[in-house]
From TrEMBL:
InterPro entries listed in its UniProt record: SGNH_hydro_sf
Name of the protein this chain belongs to: Uncharacterized protein
SUPFAM superfamilies per record: SGNH hydrolase (SSF52266)
Domain of life: Eukaryota
Alphabetized Gene3D superfamilies for the sequence: SGNH hydrolase
Organism classification: Eukaryota, Metazoa, Spiralia, Lophotrochozoa, Mollusca
Length: 92
Protein backbone atom coordinates (compact mmCIF):
# COMPACT_ATOMS: atom_id res chain seq x y z
CA UNK A 1 0.00 0.00 0.00
CA UNK A 2 2.82 2.44 0.73
CA UNK A 3 4.23 1.87 -2.75
CA UNK A 4 0.85 2.58 -4.32
CA UNK A 5 0.45 5.74 -2.25
CA UNK A 6 3.88 7.01 -3.33
CA UNK A 7 3.25 6.27 -7.02
CA UNK A 8 -0.18 7.89 -7.02
CA UNK A 9 1.15 11.06 -5.42
CA UNK A 10 3.59 11.45 -8.34
CA UNK A 11 1.16 10.59 -11.14
CA UNK A 12 -0.87 12.97 -13.24
CA UNK A 13 -4.38 11.53 -12.98
CA UNK A 14 -6.15 14.34 -14.79
CA UNK A 15 -7.38 12.09 -17.59
CA UNK A 16 -8.48 9.19 -15.38
CA UNK A 17 -12.15 8.67 -14.58
CA UNK A 18 -11.95 5.58 -12.33
CA UNK A 19 -9.27 4.60 -9.85
CA UNK A 20 -9.41 1.02 -8.61
CA UNK A 21 -7.22 0.07 -5.66
CA UNK A 22 -6.72 -3.67 -5.31
CA UNK A 23 -4.19 -3.94 -2.53
CA UNK A 24 -3.62 -5.05 1.01
CA UNK A 25 -3.41 -8.80 0.53
CA UNK A 26 0.35 -9.01 0.93
CA UNK A 27 0.28 -6.51 3.79
CA UNK A 28 -2.28 -8.61 5.69
CA UNK A 29 -0.40 -11.80 4.86
CA UNK A 30 2.87 -10.28 6.12
CA UNK A 31 1.27 -9.42 9.46
CA UNK A 32 0.87 -5.66 9.07
CA UNK A 33 -1.62 -4.37 11.63
CA UNK A 34 -4.99 -3.53 10.11
CA UNK A 35 -4.86 -0.11 11.77
CA UNK A 36 -1.63 0.66 9.88
CA UNK A 37 -3.12 -0.48 6.56
CA UNK A 38 -6.22 1.61 7.26
CA UNK A 39 -4.06 4.70 7.78
CA UNK A 40 -2.20 4.08 4.52
CA UNK A 41 -5.46 3.62 2.60
CA UNK A 42 -6.79 6.84 4.14
CA UNK A 43 -3.61 8.71 3.12
CA UNK A 44 -3.76 7.19 -0.37
CA UNK A 45 -7.32 8.42 -0.91
CA UNK A 46 -6.37 11.83 0.49
CA UNK A 47 -3.42 12.12 -1.92
CA UNK A 48 -5.74 11.29 -4.81
CA UNK A 49 -8.21 13.93 -3.65
CA UNK A 50 -5.45 16.55 -3.50
CA UNK A 51 -4.94 16.26 -7.24
CA UNK A 52 -6.72 18.83 -9.40
CA UNK A 53 -8.83 16.28 -11.26
CA UNK A 54 -12.26 15.96 -9.67
CA UNK A 55 -14.18 13.82 -12.18
CA UNK A 56 -13.18 10.40 -10.97
CA UNK A 57 -14.50 7.68 -8.72
CA UNK A 58 -12.32 5.71 -6.34
CA UNK A 59 -12.98 2.02 -5.81
CA UNK A 60 -11.28 -0.26 -3.28
CA UNK A 61 -11.48 -4.01 -3.77
CA UNK A 62 -11.95 -6.38 -0.90
CA UNK A 63 -9.39 -9.14 -0.63
CA UNK A 64 -10.55 -12.49 -1.89
CA UNK A 65 -10.23 -15.38 0.56
CA UNK A 66 -6.66 -16.56 1.06
CA UNK A 67 -5.20 -19.72 2.49
CA UNK A 68 -2.46 -18.02 4.44
CA UNK A 69 -4.50 -15.46 6.39
CA UNK A 70 -8.06 -14.65 7.42
CA UNK A 71 -9.03 -11.49 5.52
CA UNK A 72 -12.44 -10.93 7.10
CA UNK A 73 -11.23 -8.27 9.55
CA UNK A 74 -9.45 -6.45 6.75
CA UNK A 75 -12.52 -6.51 4.55
CA UNK A 76 -14.69 -5.29 7.44
CA UNK A 77 -12.27 -2.40 7.91
CA UNK A 78 -12.70 -1.50 4.22
CA UNK A 79 -16.46 -1.45 4.66
CA UNK A 80 -16.13 0.85 7.66
CA UNK A 81 -13.65 3.08 5.87
CA UNK A 82 -15.90 3.42 2.84
CA UNK A 83 -18.49 5.17 5.01
CA UNK A 84 -15.90 7.82 5.92
CA UNK A 85 -14.32 8.36 2.52
CA UNK A 86 -15.61 9.03 -0.98
CA UNK A 87 -14.88 5.49 -2.12
CA UNK A 88 -16.90 2.51 -3.21
CA UNK A 89 -16.03 -1.01 -2.15
CA UNK A 90 -15.95 -3.81 -4.70
CA UNK A 91 -16.62 -7.23 -3.22
CA UNK A 92 -14.46 -9.53 -5.29
Amino acid sequence: MLDICKKLSKMNISDISNIIIFAGGNDVSNGQPISFIKDVIFKTVQSIQEQEQTNYEIFICKISPRRDVDVRNFNSMLEDLSSKLPVKVIDC
